[in-house]
Design brief:
Helix content is 0%, strand content 64%. Strand 1 and strand 2 form a beta hairpin. The chain has one domain: Porin, CATH 2.40.160. With 264 residues, the protein is mostly beta strands. The protein has a twelve-stranded antiparallel β-barrel with strand order 1-3-4-6-7-8-9-12-13-16-17-18. The protein has a four-stranded antiparallel sheet with strand order 10-11-14-15, with no helix packed on it. The protein starts with a strand and ends with a strand.
Length: 264
């Protein structure tokens, strides 16, 4: 809350470990195939009205895929996200009442959708092809150097057309649970669990049976201050290959590394 603005860059790399089928069964990556996912994000945020925040994230996405017959690399700009947050109550402000924040955002289809990909293995697909509106709430509380957080975000996508077919991705619910510990030197470590559920899509107004998706993500992250205004941040993440927690979704494991410059 003491910062007025920040800018940063973050790089992410991941290795595909398998995928869940429409019945929730997990299968590892077949022999002779591989997929590596990369992303570089430029982002910035500024405080408004004391307890409000506005942020912009611009991603660049690359994918390398290989099968027994060919290999391919492609990428480009992903879907840009604009988000806002307003804290009605601050974490730690009350001993008994947690901090409560309202979350909202819009994701713009600036990336290349899968149906517009030109590469044989669709490695140049970098977005969903549809506008997405997001809204949610975050609840946080501090206990000395410990921060506990939970959040729920609902995403609704606009319809889009491909090859004369009108398609709408189903509404999506993402839930987050996290815990962080801050050391006296302002370094911090955190653990998080995210679970995302998406209902079935519709095609030309008809529900596409078996198209619902859900996946869990487990992460461990940390922050290390280089100075009062400059800090490194990074982490590890993976999708647990457990049948009850996935459906119609690839699984990955990877790492992130970023740097942030802030102003107070």
């Amino acid at each position: 809350m003491h910062e007025d603005a920040l800018v940063g860059m973050q790089a992410r790399s991941g290795l595909a470990t398998g995928s869940f089928g429409d019945a929730g069964h997990f299968s590892g990556t077949p022999s002779g195939t591989s997929e590596y996912d990369f992303e570089e994000d430029a982002f910035g945020a500024a405080r408004v009205f004391d307890r409000g925040q506005v942020a912009l994230l611009v991603p660049f996405v690359e994918t390398a895929r290989k099968n027994p017959l060919e290999s391919e690399l492609g990428g480009g700009m992903g879907d840009v996200n604009l988000s806002v947050r307003y804290d009605f109550l601050l974490a730690g402000q009350s001993r008994y009442v947690p901090g409560i924040a309202l979350l909202a955002g819009e994701t713009f289809p600036t990336g290349t959708s899968p149906n517009r990909a030109r590469h044989q293995l669709a490695t140049d697909a970098t977005g969903t092809g549809a506008f997405q509106g997001n809204g949610g709430v975050a609840i946080e509380q501090t206990f000395g150097p410990i921060l506990l957080q939970s959040a729920a975000i609902v995403a609704v996508r606009a319809p889009y057309s491909a090859a004369g077919v009108n398609e709408t991705l189903g509404p999506q619910l993402s839930t987050l649970f996290g815990a962080a510990y801050t050391f006296p030197n302002e370094a911090a470590v955190a653990l998080s669990l995210t679970y995302t559920l998406e209902s079935a899509a519709t095609i030309d107004g008809v529900t596409a049976e078996g198209s619902a998706r859900h996946v869990a993500n487990v992460g461990a992250s940390g922050i290390f201050p280089l100075s009062d205004t400059l800090r490194l941040q990074g982490g590890l993440y993976f999708n647990p290959p457990l049948a009850p927690f996935g459906r119609n979704q690839p699984t990955t494991a990877g790492l992130t590394l970023g740097i942030v410059r802030s102003w107070s």
